[in-house]
């Protein structure tokens, strides 16, 4: 929980001291005060995107490119807003790659077949529960080049690759009549969390006794992709770059 809990508690502490830099989490806390340890607090923590923080710690070169775009387009005197989204193609590509790399819901919510069906020679009886393997879809080598590699540029058109790879938004929020009804709001929250976090933080692997620590990619079993507990000092984990 450190990748979501520790940065969140840092923002809460700074707000109590009236010396915080505006951010996604501070905006939420100002408009929606929550009790420590409550379910609402956990929802706010995780909406900031633990998988994004993990990716930035593991792939600093991607973080640097995203921050360069923010500095060039937004500058350092204000936070990026949702209205800036169209001007931030690399940030948009980064959001897509975070969603593709490790979908928050690797196995989609179960659907039920309304009638007997046959798929590739297999009978699917009426009423069968069917779970779509979202992780397999977003790591299909026939769709995504080097799918195990974290590479936001796969979603940017270039002179050598004029057609970006398939947008994972088509998959990760569900599809058909059972698509997530809050997908538009969720996507907007992810964008703001990514853009505003990168505007004010440098994110790095933890350091203990002068040694950079590796971060294992281990997840709790279950429907949601939840990282195992990561315990490390906040100042070693996320560096605040504000004045």
From TrEMBL:
Gene Ontology molecular function: heme binding; iron ion binding; monooxygenase activity; oxidoreductase activity, acting on paired donors, with incorporation or reduction of molecular oxygen
One record GO biological process: mycotoxin biosynthetic process
Record Gene3D superfamilies: Cytochrome P450 (1.10.630.10)
Taxonomic lineage of the native organism: Eukaryota, Fungi, Dikarya, Ascomycota, Pezizomycotina
Binding sites annotated in the UniProt record for heme: 180
InterPro entries on file: Cyt_P450 (IPR001128), Cyt_P450_CS (IPR017972), Cyt_P450_E_grp-I (IPR002401), Cyt_P450_sf (IPR036396), Cytochrome_P450_fung (IPR050364)
Names of the cofactor(s): heme
A Pfam family of this chain: p450
Keywords: Heme, Iron, Metal-binding, Monooxygenase, Oxidoreductase
Protein name listed in UniProt: Cytochrome P450 E-class group I
Family: Belongs to the cytochrome P450 family.
